[in-house]
Amino acid sequence: EKGRMHFERAIEYSGGRFLMAKVIYAEQYAKLVFDKELHDRLLTEVVNADPVAMDLTLINRVAQRRAAVLLAGSDEYF
How far is CA 43 from the centre of its chain? Predict the structure, then answer.
């Protein structure tokens, strides 16, 4: 649960604008605890989010691409 708390804090600090935090949360935490619902929800939020944010647009676009790949492989993993 400590890991979950840190990921949620990172998302909170950025106001949800740093999308890569959600991707890493899904990839590193949700997979580890085998939580498909959390995994898919986080990645869907990233894919559907507006990537434009001051100083974060490029990394957010990368995050969206990574999220789409991870989401496509979700059923295979879980």
Answer: 5
User: DSSP labels for the chain?
Assistant: -HHHHHHHHHHHHTTT--HHHHHHIIIIIITTTT-HHHHHHHHHHHHHS----TTTHHHHHHHHHHHHHHHHTHHHH-
pTM, two decimals, is 0.93
Distance CA 24, CA 6 (A): 12
Distance, in Å, from the CA atom of 70 to the CA atom of 64, rounded to the nearest integer, reads 10
**Per-residue tokens: 6:** 């840190």
User: For the segment 51-60, what is each residue's pLDDT rounded down to a tens digit?
Assistant: 999 999 999 9
Rounded Cα distance between 38 and 68, Å, is 15
